[in-house]
Design goal:
- The protein is α/β, with parallel strands linked by helices.
- It has a single domain, classed as 3-Layer(aba) Sandwich (Rossmann fold).
- Helix content is 30%, strand content 20%.
- The strands form 3 sheets. An 8-stranded mixed beta sheet has the order 2-1-3-4-12-11-10-7, sandwiched between helices. The protein has a two-stranded antiparallel ribbon with strand order 5-9. It has a two-stranded antiparallel sheet with strand order 6-8.
- Helix 2 crosses helix 4.
- The longest helix has 26 residues.
- One of its GO terms (molecular function) is transferase activity.
- It comes from Stappia taiwanensis.
- One of its GO terms (cellular component) is cytosol.
- This is Glutamine amidotransferase.
């Protein structure tokens, strides 16, 4: 989706944090633009700063990346610490894959690999919890994954969906912060790029073969796309429906 930036001038902004030079926000970004938001894309790994407040943003999304939330690189530590900002200000926050693990780390939870060295690369079963079903009635049966680490459920977080290899797949923290281990942002071109550039990873224990990635997409992606639309309705809505700044809920970290 390509829109004239002039059409988005003055629109509410979503802070988008990416971790590679070629990364894009994929279908999540496309859907946010369709809803009337402007994307403020930053790459802290390459020197971009993160704002000290989100008062000029409607929300924030931290996407995935090849690094670990346990890495000692300065930008990783800064991003984990920065998550205090949306939590403190009560702004909508979404962490995807690495972003979800960073949210867990921020809240004091452990990020770790599977004890048997298993990874999730490809499509895997997703099991919504009772609370998850109360939040959203339609969850996909299978979701696309690309990770070799998971996270413990942070204190104070609510589990929305679980998996078999990595049990914590979707969590909610307070009214506006969410972390998901899977990749609803994935487009077809992203799948081509990931499975080409990182082809050796599909030989890791537990990974699906490349053919099954593409076959699975045609079967499972419509439900994932439908879920994403419903989730974004719940999480951020549309730009035209954004409350004025004075009406935004505020939450103080205890």
């Amino acid at each position: 989706m390509i829109l004239d930036p002039k059409l988005l001038a003055g629109r509410p902004k979503i802070l988008v944090v990416l971790h590679q030079e070629t990364s894009t926000p994929g279908r999540v970004g496309q859907e946010l633009i369709r809803r009337g938001f402007a994307l403020d894309i930053r790459r802290p790994r390459f020197g971009d700063c993160l704002p000290s407040t989100l008062e000029d943003h409607a929300g924030a999304v931290i996407f995935g990346g090849p690094m670990s939330a346990n890495d000692t690189d300065a930008f990783v530590t800064r991003e984990i610490d920065w998550i205090d900002v949306p939590l403190r200000e009560g702004k909508p926050f979404l962490g995807i894959c690495l972003g979800a693990q960073m949210l867990a780390r921020n809240l004091g939870a452990r990020v770790y690999g599977h004890e048997d060295g298993l990874v999730e690369i490809g499509y895997y079963d997703l099991h919504p919890t009772k609370t998850g079903c109360e939040l959203m009635s339609h969850w996909p049966d299978k979701v696309y994954q690309w990770h070799k680490e998971g996270f413990d459920l942070p204190s104070g977080a609510t589990l929305l969906a679980s998996g078999e290899t990595y049990p914590n797949q979707a969590i909610q923290v307070g009214p506006a912060a969410f972390g998901i281990q899977f990749h609803p942002e994935l487009t077809y071109l992203m799948m081509v790029r990931w499975t080409t550039r990182a082809a050796p990873r599909m030989a890791l224990p537990g990974a699906r073969n490349r053919r099954d990635h593409f076959a699975g997409r045609y079967v499972f992606d419509p439900a994932v796309k439908s879920w994403l639309v419903g989730f974004l309705d719940r999480w951020i809505g549309h730009a035209d429906a954004q409350p004025c700044r004075a009406e935004l809920p505020q939450r103080v970290l205890s």
